[in-house]
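Exercise 7. Given the components listed, write out the predicted structure of the assembled complex. Treat all entries as one system.
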Amino acid sequence: MSSSGPASLQRERGPGRLEAFSDGVFGIAMTLLVLHLVAPGPGGLAGSSLGQELLSLWPSFVAYVTSFMTILIAWINHHNLFSLVKRVDRPFLFYNGVLLLFITFVPFPTSLVADYLQHRDAGTAAAVYSGTSLLAALSFNLLWRRASGKGGLLDERVTAEEIRSITRQYYVGPSIYAAALALSFVSPVGSVALCAAVAAFYALTATIASMCG
Amino acid sequence: MSSSGPASLQRERGPGRLEAFSDGVFGIAMTLLVLHLVAPGPGGLAGSSLGQELLSLWPSFVAYVTSFMTILIAWINHHNLFSLVKRVDRPFLFYNGVLLLFITFVPFPTSLVADYLQHRDAGTAAAVYSGTSLLAALSFNLLWRRASGKGGLLDERVTAEEIRSITRQYYVGPSIYAAALALSFVSPVGSVALCAAVAAFYALTATIASMCG
Amino acid sequence: MSSSGPASLQRERGPGRLEAFSDGVFGIAMTLLVLHLVAPGPGGLAGSSLGQELLSLWPSFVAYVTSFMTILIAWINHHNLFSLVKRVDRPFLFYNGVLLLFITFVPFPTSLVADYLQHRDAGTAAAVYSGTSLLAALSFNLLWRRASGKGGLLDERVTAEEIRSITRQYYVGPSIYAAALALSFVSPVGSVALCAAVAAFYALTATIASMCG
Amino acid sequence: MSSSGPASLQRERGPGRLEAFSDGVFGIAMTLLVLHLVAPGPGGLAGSSLGQELLSLWPSFVAYVTSFMTILIAWINHHNLFSLVKRVDRPFLFYNGVLLLFITFVPFPTSLVADYLQHRDAGTAAAVYSGTSLLAALSFNLLWRRASGKGGLLDERVTAEEIRSITRQYYVGPSIYAAALALSFVSPVGSVALCAAVAAFYALTATIASMCG
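Answer.
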């Protein structure tokens, strides 16, 4: 691209439209999860009742709520990160797209966990599930590295000390999901439970913060 | 998080992006409902006509319109609540997420009602349907409690009297849906009709307001 | 609602958030249409080639493009209407929701037309298809009546003469779709062709305007 | 339309709402791609393991990532184009809609490639796939022609030299996808690989730009 007019116009771009686009993708990925909740029709009950069938779908509900909360927390993190960003450039747009690739992928491993959590291949399902969360968490790190790097994308009121503090916080997600991936080979249920615990822990601290504040 | 730069930047956040994100989720949940309307193809008519098949789908259409209007009214309430909110914090983001969890779940009980309203298990379907609306209405109360609580999230022009008035209004939804849940064990059709009546009442008052205003 | 603080805050609301919400619903309804385009997998070819199968799907492609363009034109009309609107009230929110109900319903009659256009029940499919467009066009009239009525929702720069001119334009849609509905009982293909012609006419005039402007 | 009030109001419209609407459509099209990733349930494994089944789905994953990145790059281009646009008119709205028609269509050829890449009809699938990308790239050219034409839609800070430079860049996409379409008749895998290479090249240059900047 030439360096004058259009380039300078583009350089002025704030993150507004990228936020709106990302919001849409996060929201759709969260909403599509419900399509994998399918109860048998009246013709498929085979002697049992609808209530029994719904109870036997518990792995689907656990996977649904865990994935929903995981994407919700990812969105809140995205929201926090973008509140520090003043402008975006092409690599930032691209890394954000890679993050969205893994976010939109979540319904697939969620359906694997729902189908296979009580099956001998539960380990494979749990590995794909925790591995997807790991890749999403690593993408978040790439995005933050770009934001906080030499390109000057952050608001200038963010200090070097604060950047280091946030960078340390960003190590937590990949570490936990790497542990969940390793655990999937030993205990598939434990691996999914660890992913669910991250969401539950977040919910708990939000509730406590709410009662204190 | 450290207390200076980024925290203060985040403290400035208005509800704009949260609104846009929530709008996307409400809109998608409403639009996905149509995916559960499925007519048999020409090979599945089995002697009847398409017209007869469409007429026999009436529980699906009733469930579709009721769920659509329920989510629409929830969105209008969300719109009204947010018009009073000046800034958001982490618990508010989280409670909004819980509300969205139940909103996005609506297509599932809607499909249950469509499939089971004329079946002996209609009670289970109606209980899950009205129970989901009850949980969504309770989430709305949590969100309003947080908004109107000590955190100072509301616009300062909202008076204490007005807050009490709105708090009283927020008791209506959970009360009706709790009644619908109780009714589902006695009369499944009555339970779904009560949920539909809420939407119809709202439509009626909007139309009357329109004719008067 | 009490008449002071919150009510006055709400009275200030512009159409911004309603536009964003509606945009999401229009966009999702347009995008979901593709889910009804399904080609048989390699195991379902039964002696024919993929190319032959795709050609035999032509009613699906015609229905897809017609519905997509119909929703696109509805969105452009919505966009035009909202550019004249200065503020919204509860009946306007509600009528907009009714319009969105019929817009999100479009994928269902589209799939009927795709499945039944070459079948003896094509008349039923065409009637549901043109009837849905008719109801959407009538909803547009309700919305415009509310916008241009006594409530003072329009920008004050819009003159009475202009309102009358637009009101006359709004008669065109319902008239054509009522004709298409009547035609569906005589010639199903003619009815769908009339709906497609509306979209094609719009495309043509846009292209001509483009070549002239 | 009459030439005074409303027309002048409409003439003031910036591209804001069109961007938001388009963002929704791009985002949904990208997110719907995951619905075509379907693993067999435990009852459908037929002696193999879930891991083996997932590995045999590789054409689906290749098609998923390629289509996701193709739509992402189209969105980034759209973002760039719109950063130069100051106002929109009816033909521009319409051409943007035609572009969105081909973008929302992408999940269909993606599922064809996933199903047929290892089948004798792979050529047909690859032709539909690359042909869709070609039509989307041509729509982008139409949109840019309208933006940079006599209608005065561009920001006046964009110089004639810059317009010529961008016009030349816009020849690249159609040329590559026309080559991919031609290649589909000789080597279906090569055709899809060329489409994937466009996305990979873009990713590579974004990463290099990131390491340099």
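Discussion: Residues 74 and 103 of chain B are 9 Å apart (CA to CA). Residues 58-212 of chain B form one domain.
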